[in-house]
Amino acid sequence: MTGTTPAAAADELVALPGTPLADAVVRLVRPVETPSVFNHSIRTYLFARLVAPRLALAAGRDYDDDLLFAACAMHDLGVASDGPHRQRFEVEGADRAAEFLASHGVPASDADEVWQAIALHTSPGIAERRGTLCVLVRAGLAVEFGGPMGAGQLDAVTEEQAGTVHLAYPRLDMIGSLTDAIVAQAAKNPGNAPRYSIPGEFLLERREFGRTRMEHACRSSRWGD
User: Fold this and answer.
1) Considering its fold, how many domains does the chain have in total?
2) 68, 50, 39, 37: which is closest to 9 by C-alpha?
């Protein structure tokens, strides 16, 4: 926008929705996730919002920004410290998110869109065919992981934009911290880690090799972790 100062543009870039629902989501998630996983979830939203115009998607016309924020901010709620940890983390997080949204008056159809976006966020080739929220969460994650989940939208985010996002929400060894949390949750119950699922493979790879293939791949990602 003409006349916008660099500082104002940076503030706008990392601004969260600021609505009562978004604020409630932050109050739910921040205390029960590590700072690294919390920052990861917020960056996923910020990156998804940056990628949306590349996909010809506009807030208010093609998707609800509050629902996108809810899906991104809660997509790893299944590894939260206060969770029951009785299902694979994607499903557990989706269930908790949908229940939370219903308790805040969000219509069932909207809560179900968020449920799908969270439950399917580790399912490439499926999530992208289940609606706009699923597409945007996957796109935000692809940028957040810097390449290993797909590099198709990486150039939608400039180095300056990425620097602003990372300054506001530092990575804090994201891939290691997130993998630790997923593996810890998966190890609590055999049903949390079915074979060939992300939690199942992460648990197996950590036990057999000490490091997952994702951790190895992310060392050469755009962000270096």
Assistant:
1) 1
2) 50
